[in-house]
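Crash report, auto-generated. Payload:
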Amino acid sequence: MDLFLQYLANGVVIGSTYVLVAVGLTLIFGILGVVNFAHGEFYMIGGYAGIFAITVLGLPVLPAVAVVLATAAVVGIAAEAILHKPMKNRDATSSIISSFGLAVALQNATLIVMGPQPQRLNLDVSKIPVLSSLPTDFGPVFLPQQRTLIPLTMVLLIAILYVVLRYTWTGRSLRAMAQHATVARLCGVRVERVAVVTFMVGAALAGIAGMLMSSIFLVYPIVGNMIALKAFTVVILGGMGNVAGAAAAGLLLGITESLTSGYIANSMRDIVGFVFVILVLLFRPQGLFGKAVDRS
Amino acid sequence: MKTLLAAIAAVALLAVAPFGLGGYETNVLMMVLFFVILAVGLDLVSGYCGQFSFATGAFYGVGAYTAAIMSRDLGTSIWLHLPAGAVVAGLFGLLLGIPALRLKGHFLAIVTIAFQTIVYLVISQWTSFTGGQVGLTMPNAGPVRIFGVTLFEFGSLRSYYWLTLAMTVICLIVAWRLIHSRLGREWVAIRDDETLAGAVGLDTTRGKLTAFVAYAALAGVAGVLTAHSLRGVTPDDFTIWISATVVAMMVVGGRGTFVGPIIGAAFLATLPEFLGKFAEYKMLIYGVLLVLAITLVPEGVVGRWRARTSR
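Recovered output after restart:
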């Protein structure tokens, strides 16, 4: 039982990362209709930006987060200019191929610049005010503060995102775009601006996830491959474009993987999600939490 | 007629090429031929039938591992491996084709990537069956006998090159015949408008499944040839990078054209040789080319050229 709780806690930590990456992915899909295969690279770039800010520049944590966010903003603007702007009047296949090409290019550019060896972010938790006072033992569960930070950040960011989407003008225009782009434009929504904001939000969420995770796991040029695939799994399980569904499915996938590697075999952990997604697409294509809609 | 003569001249030129080239160049040419088979195969399912696939590397790997595992466990020869590789890869194609019946666009793209990843994870982690990360080695294909008379020995690079060339020609003829058959026209109808194709009485299920099987079987043949020519298999030869490369070849050359993928494969597979010390940037260049091609020339080089000449 104790071991089960530990697996559960580990699953929540990993799942929180999936949530952060997948929510951005599902927003970009839901609002702009772009299937962004380069989303894992947003995560990877966030990880490297964090390492650069903390290890190379020697910044404290909060300014380092600012560096990651600034990088994510640039990445978001660039990705929108490549994947969305020129593809507006084309079929969906063009942006899929283009984002795939962008992912390949970004991974290999990083490989050339940073080298293939995995790197790690040394996050000194004792310098972060609230976090350093948190316990590391929760009954039978042991969680270092670097790990506890991830679910906490996830909840905070998703809460902020919810408030922004619900109550601000920007959030309303994002949701209006998701419902009907043409009508939104007629109502005075600046569609071009919404597209850029959406990509920036997606890149920021994934970038923060990358930064936090690289204090536990290592970051390397092709780390985004697996993360992007996991995020797609989550997006499909949650229903394409469904933010709440992605959040629930992300945690579910993290916990499932953790239990699989704990009780079945570690080599099965990555496969289980993909098998699951193929089954879901076959039998419930709208996702576990989605409503049946016309997908043509 | 002119096209046929040009094709025969090209094959004849490729057949005598090893006499004028060194071992390294012959090897490069052989790699080009593998990619020609892969890209033309992908074009059947993506270019003609309009179904996405980022799983070329998986079928390529299934073919190669079929040959390697049969050779290890059964001691069979390449003549059995070629049909076996095509059949096993074709069955996997059928397996992937079934979800493709219900899915379109991005859903299909994601499933093919998931499939590619599952196949890679299985061949790289099921060590007792596939050799894991180290892979498997292959013996020489051995002598070729007809009625007990040894025609020639497999072993030299040239013999593998000629075999690959012969198989490439056969694969291209098969692809050509498929495209210009009734089935090929059904594929195009499904690509252009699936609802309409179904409404006029075409069996879209059969159409899509046959396209996936044909594509997978061609990739399987390329896999068997690669496994024998390189004398072994390792999982890292069958990653999603290969799939990405083949997609780039098809898109740059021209989707839905016969010569497009051939030109794309020849161009991108030989490109690293001309880059000299920048050859390590080849995947970066492929990625950038893919983005540029789909943005600026979405119909591909051949498609653009045709549009211009027909005007």
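Post-recovery validation: The first strand of chain B starts at residue 136 and ends at 137.
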